[in-house]
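Notebook, bench 3.
Goal today: get a predicted structure for Sulfite oxidase from Extremus antarcticus so we can plan the truncation constructs. The sequence was checked against the plasmid map this morning, with no discrepancies at the termini. Length recorded as 349 residues. Pasting the sequence as submitted so the record is complete.
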Amino acid sequence: MRLEDEGATSPPLQEDEERSAFVKLDPSTFFIRHPPPPHELGPSITDDEFLFQTIHMGAAIVDESRYRISITGLVDNPYSLTLTQLHALPSTTITAFHECYGSPLVPPTKALRRIGNVTWTGVPLHVLLVYARPKVSGTYVWSSGLDHGTFAGVEADRYQKDLTLAKALGPEVLVAYAMNGQPLSKNRGGPVRLVVPGWFGTNSTKWLCKLEVQDRRAEGPFTTTFYNEQYPPDDPTNPYKPVYGVQPNSMISSPEPEAEVVGAEVVVEGWAWSEDGVTTVDVSVDEGESWVDAKVEDRSELSWQRFRAKLELAKGRFVVLARAEGADGRVQPLGEGRNHVHRVAFEVV
């Protein structure tokens, strides 16, 4: 079915009518499930049970019979979609890394490596936007979820984010209803969530119920108070900027920490990723005094990329680190920074 077909869409909704699909929150507070350590993230596709979860104010239980997505704002053709209508539209599946930015309450100085690589299925956002016909004054797309409550002592009547209209019109951004071939679970934002590949997970609004084209950034606390980065912190010459695209990053999956490697040949493997893709990964066992080029797989869609390097080492204890460079020329920092290099200690015996 196409959006132009009779019955493919529903009339515009009244203000906040889409929120009638909300039933309750369960859990009803902040919840986080950390990923396993990097050496357990070897497969290219991350199973749901190994993918981190971050829920800010609680997970929304949704009455699917009342569920609607409202597409509105600075558009010439506002409309809404039921869940059945959304599923009837042509879908797209894309593989992409999915990374949590980390806590917005602390400076971005610690590498968390809350990362996975999954396939998403849904309707490209640009299809919905083009049909709505954004006005020339529209520069942002606001996305709202059905969750609400308190995060870090701040009340919010909804989780609301924004993305630039230019990003929203990209072919990779989805209004998604499946992950790894399975319907989205409640804790993954089901029945429908926004997915913004290449950007941090905070931008991928769960329990999606409303999309608005606007001429300014969204006004809720998750854009005004949280998830705006200043780095280095407390530097008045460095303005705050929204947490959007992912910087070059990498992690070592083999050898695992404190491994005993038999023989002189040591194979170092891992994953690298960034918004624009990774071009090179170098590894070092002397804290960056010298580097060995790793072989980096070409990126497929917006997936993370496997890297592999062979080292010839004498017996002894070593610390290996990996440093990725993105297509835009940015390089992982060795020290502070939320994407600083990963170090793994091991011994050659």
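The domain at 249-348 is CATH 2.60.40.650 (Immunoglobulin-like). Residues 2 and 123 are 11 Å apart (CA to CA).
Flagging this for group meeting.
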